[in-house]
Recover the amino acids of this structure.
């Protein structure tokens, strides 16, 4: 009784496990949205793509080991200090293009949708697809410049968060960055969230 009255959102998330079906997912999507999940096996990867009017299932002939190597290297590049090193830019572009060409573009056309709802699991956990650079080295854009991406571990989690977000009325939007120790340092060298 205590948890239900003081923390109803926590209680509902933990104990009310009503699973959302794929038809409900499709109904919840707007015309510019696409939900995407990759199912990775030893020898190949399958994708499930859902839009408001269509469901598509496909196969990509890249298995878990190859995928993990590429995703791990991409994440390592993201954690390195960015500099004007041409080799860094070439490697970053190479891994971005590999991920985008072999996976994202096979499942969706990012120009066709404004929102991507990405279900992450296995090797896809903690891969920031927003930061994929697409295009040529001289003329590339981050994927987030074309499409907004939301991440979740399941459709249930995604739509619970989505529905609770839609019921909250915000007065305005704000994005803010600040140094972690005010008055301690002269310049902003890093941020904390």
């Amino acid at each position: 009784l205590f948890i239900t009255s003081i923390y109803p959102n926590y209680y509902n998330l933990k104990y009310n496990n009503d699973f959302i079906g794929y038809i409900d997912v499709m109904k919840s999507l707007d015309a510019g949205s696409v939900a995407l999940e990759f199912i990775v096996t030893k020898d190949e990867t399958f994708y499930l793509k859902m839009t408001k009017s269509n469901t598509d299932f496909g196969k990509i002939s890249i298995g878990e080991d190859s995928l993990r190597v590429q995703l791990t290297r991409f994440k390592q590049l993201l954690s390195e200090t960015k500099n004007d090193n041409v080799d860094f830019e070439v490697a970053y572009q190479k891994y971005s293009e590999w991920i985008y060409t072999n996976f994202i573009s096979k499942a969706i056309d990012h120009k066709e949708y404004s929102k991507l709802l990405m279900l992450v699991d296995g090797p896809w956990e903690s891969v920031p697809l927003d930061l994929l650079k697409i295009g040529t080295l001289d003329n590339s854009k981050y994927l987030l410049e074309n499409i907004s991406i939301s991440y979740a571990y399941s459709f249930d989690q995604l739509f619970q968060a989505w529905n609770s977000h839609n019921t909250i009325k915000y007065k305005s939007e704000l994005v803010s960055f600040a140094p972690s120790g005010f008055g301690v340092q002269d310049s902003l060298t890093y941020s904390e969230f």
